[in-house]
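S.,

Sequence below, as promised.
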Amino acid sequence: MAQALTRRYPMLSLNSDGHPHPRENALVGVAALLGLVSFATSFFYNLHILTSWTGLFGFVTAMVGFYESVTTSERFVLVVSAVVAGVGLYLGVARGGLI
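The prediction came back faster than expected:
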């Protein structure tokens, strides 16, 4: 008789292996937040300094998080965050640079 597959973790969790990863999840959250701020502020020409610095810190945080990540879902969010932060960094530097 077939048994039903039961999950021990929520569907929208970054801990898909069932173990807690507080440091890695914090890096994912910080990278996602910095990437979103960088991308959102890249639409405003006068905010190029904020865009550039948050993009740079977001990209570096995503790369450190990618180095320390454990699960595939963490890596997926980190890659998306790195791309978004990189786009913000690129647009911020193109509009005036880091200073």
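Helices lie at 22-41, 48-68, 72-94.

Coffee later?
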